[in-house]
Give the backbone structure.
Amino acid sequence: LAPQDIPSIQAEYEQEEIFGGQQVDFVLLKGDVLTPEVFLAMREFQEELDSNPYFNEEGVGSIGELVHDYRLATGEGTETDYRAVNPSTPEEAEAAVAEVGENFSPQEGKMISDDHQTTLISIHSYVPDNTEDALEKDEFLKQTAAAHFDLPGVEYEVGGYTSLTSDLLGNLLPTQIWTALLALGFAALILILIFRSIAYGLATLSVLVIGGAVELGFMVLM
């Protein structure tokens, strides 16, 4: 959406080299989010994201990861044994969330809603280098979310900068093309009616077409 050599874009890339990906995306989960299946899905979702160069495992934050790391640090299982570390029942998950809140700070309003029916997974990622990579990144994020969060009793939505950029790139150019074609079509129709001649109408329209072509060509050269 912008030239790659302008200072703001270059500064963003340099910032990513120092601090990691700063583009923020989200997965919103609704329903029975404090279940062993959802906790396991969060962990596997996080690991699969790490297989894409624009994401990394450390850039993902979720209530599942928080509880996992807390229980791991307090001796509940091992890093490779997810089921031993993750809560085995919703009640155990509720107790783990409460325990984290008592020892650090309550997560209600941060990672999970007050009624524990909605949770937000935040994802820090790298800015794509080009349009094709931006569209592929969005597709990968949505496919990964669908693969892990298509669970009974749970709804999910994907949002953030990646989806927004993909929507802009996917809709901006086609919309502009159709708008231009419709404008030329209506202009041609009006000119034909005014001159009562198809030949004269199209000849007059050529001035508009040539002017538009020269303008686009000049923009490309600039």
